[in-house]
Amino acid sequence: MAFNSADTAAFKNVWVFCEQRQGVMMPTTFELISEGRKLANELGVELCGILLGDNVDGIAAELGEYGADKVYVYNSPLLKDFTTDAYTKVIVEAVEELKPEVLLFGASNIGRDLAPRCAARLHTGLCADCTHLDIDMPNYKGFLREASTLPEERIEKLGTVMINREPHDVSRDLKMTRPAFGGNLMATIICPRFRPQMSTVRPGVMQMQAFDQAGADKVVVENVAPALTADDIHVQVLDIKKSAEKLVDLIGADVVVAVGRGISADPEKGIKLAEELAEVLGGVVGSSRACVDAGWISADHQVGQTGKTVHPKIYVALGISGAIQHTAGMQDSECIIAVNKNDTAPIFEIADYGICGDLFKVVPMMIEEMKALKK
């Protein structure tokens, strides 16, 4: 029977594209497996990983440690280095044969290249750069109560949409939430008429579940021979050169010291103070979007809906007002310390510790105190 993406009843299970590079699994994969486990539980189906590469059997069991029930492994010398042609062909043919109802990709350079090509071939929808995923309606409504300004009566009425003038129950549809209109709004998107429901998810957004050795022991690894020849690949990878450019690792940092519009009186000095405080705390410097837009700091420092989502042990917000576009990317930090001269700034509502004062006076005192404690 020919593949029909509109035959939604024929699709089952949650899949995650498991990105590896040179035989090492990318951290985003474990985040997606952890999130996929939650979605699969809500649907009452299996969670499967699809892993492509050359001799990558040895890392497949790692996926069970974070919740995968099964891993489909496609080994071939032609899959050793990523090419859009080869990876798209293998994934599309696997989906056409096994029909998962959900397919997740990390929003990495590879995921952002691969996912839309697969979606087009499969004639289904793709929601890019998601920051939140839900199946279960009570969970989704709870998320809206916390993260949106929708009135309660609107939230309670959610549950059906009109498709071809007929009501459609969205209880088994994937609710994919992402920033819209430059991060000023959050939009939830569903794909009710086609399968699989596809999404790319930002690195660092989803919480990685705890390591589970029992999961690793029971995961089923199924090796599948890919129907792939050199003629299917129209681009030849001659060499791979890693960039020497050093970008800040916000996602992996235990301490983030972030600057906001409050440094506008002297941006250079404000960033230097943040760097000094970050150094003494053993952390890195982050930023709100306002500083990036103003050209004071590079985009790889940006935290928020249109930047990176972080979960450090300590997050220090210097001169950041606390708009939802920023707090969405850092509100799950273990400890939030805010410095702002505006005592009504929204950042104080989520801060564990707040200092109302001029950051140019407060931060030097913080640096000196930290240096004294280390002596």
Could you explain the architecture of this structure?
The chain has 375 residues and is α/β, with parallel strands linked by helices. It has eleven helices and 19 strands. It has helices spanning 27-43, 84-98, 109-122, 137-147, 152-157, 213-218, 267-281, 289-293, 324-327, 347-350, 359-374, and strands spanning 14-18, 20-21, 24-25, 47-53, 70-75, 102-106, 126-130, 132-134, 160-163, 166-169, 175-180, 185-189, 197-201, 220-224, 255-259, 284-287, 314-318, 335-340, 353-356.
The shape, in one word, is globular
Low-confidence residue ranges: none
Q: Evaluate the radius of gyration.
A: 23 Å
- Proportion in helices: 25-40%
Beta fraction: 15-25%
Number of strands: 19
Measured distance between first and last alpha carbons: 73 Å
Q: What integer is the average pLDDT?
A: 89
Q: Which sheet architecture does the biggest sheet show?
A: 7 strands, parallel
Count of individual helical segments: 11
Q: Order of strands side by side in the largest beta sheet? A: 7-13-6-1-4-5-14
Estimated structural class: alpha/beta
* Helix-strand string: EEEHEEHEHEEHHEEEEEHEEHEHEHEHEH
Brief overview:
The chain is of the alpha/beta class. It is built from eleven helices and 19 strands. α2 crosses α3 and α7 packs parallel to α11.
Question: Keywords for this structure?
Answer:
single chain, 11 helices, 375 residues, 5-stranded parallel sheet, 7-stranded parallel sheet, alpha/beta
List the helices and strands and how they pair.
Layout: E1 14-18, E2 20-21, E3 24-25, H1 27-43, E4 47-53, E5 70-75, H2 84-98, E6 102-106, H3 109-122, E7 126-130, E8 132-134, H4 137-147, H5 152-157, E9 160-163, E10 166-169, E11 175-180, E12 185-189, E13 197-201, H6 213-218, E14 220-224, E15 255-259, H7 267-281, E16 284-287, H8 289-293, E17 314-318, H9 324-327, E18 335-340, H10 347-350, E19 353-356, H11 359-374
Parallel strand pairs: 1-4, 1-6, 4-5, 5-14, 6-13, 7-13, 15-16, 15-17, 17-18, 18-19
Antiparallel strand pairs: 2-3, 8-11, 9-10, 11-12
Helix pairs in contact: 2-3, 7-11
